[in-house]
Amino acid sequence: MNSIIASIHAHPTWWAMGSYYVFSNAVSTLPTPAGAGGFYRWFFDFFHGLAGNISRIVATRYPQAGNVIQGANNTPKP
Q: Is the pTM of this model over 0.90?
């Protein structure tokens, strides 16, 4: 466990990029809710909104990222 913590402290940028990649892919695999409401609808909308905002922040701060983060901006709207 100490080696993982040491790795995070030594390479925070790579861990952040890896975490973002995993989070983005996990959100993009969520199936679109079929019903009109409920907890899953809130969960789906919340995480797609969060992923979209993170993508905008990254794209604004690092314009050279380009189209790498298109997935969260192309999510279906209810």
A: no
